[in-house]
Amino acid sequence: MSTDHDDEAASPTGRRPRVVLGVAGGIAAYKAAELLRRFTESGHDVTVVPTASALEFVGAPTWAALSGKPVATDVWSGVHEVPHVRIGQQADLVVVAPATADLLAKATHGLADDLLTNTLLTARCPVVFAPAMHTEMWEHPATRANVATLRERGVLVIEPAEGRLTGKDTGKGRLPEPQEIFETCREVLVRGAAGAPSADLAGRHVVVSAGGTREYLDPVRFLGNRSSGLQGYALARAAAARGAEVTLIAANVTLADPAGVKVVRVETTAQLRDAVVAASLAADAVVMAAAPADFRPTDVSDAKIKKAADGSAPAITLAQNPDILHEISTDRSRADSVIVGFAAETGDDTGSVLDLARVKLARKGCDLLVVNDVSGGAVFGSADNEAVILGADGATVDVPHGSKSALAHVIWDEVSRRLPTG
Which of 193, 225, 243 is the last residue in one of the domains? Predict the structure, then answer.
């Protein structure tokens, strides 16, 4: 994923994107200061609109200092400029972090008793809520109904994270990390600037695998590969930003969890296979961006393998691992699901990269195959990527060199076109 946010912040008109950062009255309000810093340092024009209760947690001077703008909570400050209408009308994005249960309820029912709720009613740009509350509040039927209604209207409500809450409590309801909320908002802004629909995957459940599996020789050694997980994480983040329910199955990846994404961690190919098969049962689409090891040792030593005194190396016998992509493509739990595979090819004397990829597409039985030319170690660990997307229907889409996020969105565009409607 590209980290050159300054370049990406510029809009087609040359002005800085206008972001409204709403802050509701929860203990996680202090984390919004970090989110504000992410926006301002990457070139966005940010107006902070806290609720009165939010100022009980973080005072107005903090928001004013970090945003470079005065802060108000009511509709009467600067009334000659009609802020309760103007702020929402001029925004390119409104993000509320944290969004409390009370704020979600007000937004759902169109209440407008302060500047933030008025802004939400007048905004015609993408709106993102990052909820934070105790687990019982998040799981209450009233909150769930409010979230469902907001999502039906095209609002992006990020699933809260699991972890430590206020006091000694732990559970689902924690505000996602500010960096990950920022990345999601950046995805939404980029699509909005391009005129693309902001929540075209709303109501869809997608599964993404990422990283590289390990096959152990002994307690300290394993067979592995160079997959970093960056492309899989970009795919998960992009899908979440487009409104999907995302399950990310991560094989030995150390990246931060994308906001609003359920992460399942695995190590071996067998574990990856079990997790993917289980998750795909209810999935509209599965994207296999992970790099499973093709082989595993038939015997795994319980103790570290020692060097031989005579300098000889131990013989290692390998067995072939299951072909996960072929299995979920040819034995689908849902006939209308869309399956996407990845092929890292170098080409050889039997054919070019695309020749070999077309053979693989037919053999695997998937709907789309994303082909990377990895000659010389290209792609692995890089923030950028380029690819050719081959379709079982004969389609070919060339994706030029760019960020892995950009490639992720092209892949989801192709998936979206193949998903059943109605």
Answer: 193
